[in-house]
UniProtKB/TrEMBL annotation:
InterPro entries referenced in this protein's UniProt entry, alphabetically: AMMECR1 (IPR023473), AMMECR1_dom_sf (IPR036071), AMMECR1_domain (IPR002733), AMMECR1_N (IPR027485)
Pfam families attached to this UniProt entry: AMMECR1
Domain named AMMECR1: residues: 5-200
Domain of life from the UniProt record: Eukaryota
Alphabetical list of SUPFAM superfamilies matching this protein: AMMECR1-like (SSF143447)
Protein name in UniProt: Putative AMMECR1 protein
C-alpha cells in the first residue's frame, strides 16, 4: 500500500477525543453540529475512531470501529468517523441518544503513521498494526487488537484472513507468499464519557 507522507510527529490528543464525543452528541440528539475545527490541527493523516462501552468485567466492550487508511484532513475526518463508527458499523446496532446519555461510552482516536511494506510475519505484537491483501481481499487490525486478544503473529494473520472473507485453515508457505502486508504504528488517545461531560461544563 502506497501512502502519502504524513506528519510523523503528529499525536492524538484529548482535544481530538472531545471533538469525537461532541460530534456524536450533536448527531444522536439531532442538533446542528458544533464547530470542532479549532480543536484539531489542519493536517492529513490516516485515522480510526473506536467506541467502547464500560462493562462490569472491567474490560471495555467494543461498540464500533471505523476509519480510513488513506490520509485525510483530520479536522474533518475525526468528527466524520466518530459518527460513522458509532452509527454505521454493521456489526452493531447504531448508538442511540438514550445509550449516549447513559454515560457508558468511551472513545479512542488513533492516528496512523509509518506505513511500511513488510513480510507477513515481520511486525511486532503491541507495536504494529497490519493491513493485508490476499487474493484481492483486504483487512486491517490496529496495533491494539493482537495484544488485547493475546494473539501471536500467525494467529493474528489467520484472523485477518477470516475477517477479509478468506477462510484459510493454515498458514502454509504458499499462503504466506500470496499475502501482501503493510505494517504501521499509531498514536492513540482515550476519553471517557465523564471526562467529556466535565470538559463540556468547564
Amino acid at each position: 500500500m502506497r501512502q502519502k507522507l504524513v506528519n510523523m510527529s503528529l499525536a492524538a490528543t484529548k482535544d481530538m477525543c472531545f471533538a469525537a464525543f461532541q460530534s456524536l452528541d450533536d448527531k444522536v440528539h439531532g442538533r446542528a453540529p458544533r464547530d470542532t475545527a479549532h480543536l484539531i490541527p489542519d493536517t492529513e493523516c490516516p485515522l480510526f475512531v473506536t467506541w467502547h462501552t464500560a462493562s462490569h468485567t472491567g474490560e471495555p466492550d467494543l461498540r464500533g470501529c471505523i476509519g480510513c487508511l488513506t490520509p485525510l484532513k483530520i479536522r474533518h475526518g475525526i468528527p466524520k468517523y466518530a459518527c460513522v463508527a458509532a452509527l454505521e458499523d454493521t456489526r452493531f446496532s447504531p448508538v442511540t441518544a438514550k445509550e449516549f446519555d447513559e454515560g457508558n461510552l468511551l472513545v479512542d482516536v488513533s492516528l496512523l503513521v509509518r506505513f511500511t511494506p513488510c513480510d507477513p510475519l515481520d511486525w511486532k505484537v503491541g507495536k504494529h498494526g497490519i493491513t493485508i491483501v490476499y487474493k484481492g481481499r483486504s483487512s486491517v487490525f490496529l496495533p491494539c487488537v493482537a495484544e488485547e486478544q493475546g494473539w501471536d503473529q500467525p494467529t493474528t494473520l489467520l484472523h485477518l484472513l477470516h475477517k477479509g472473507g478468506s477462510y484459510v485453515k493454515e498458514l502454509t508457505a504458499d499462503v504466506l507468499k500470496s499475502i501482501s502486508c503493510t505494517r504501521f504504528e499509531s498514536s492513540v488517545e482515550h476519553m471517557t464519557f465523564s471526562e467529556y461531560k466535565q470538559r463540556l461544563s468547564a
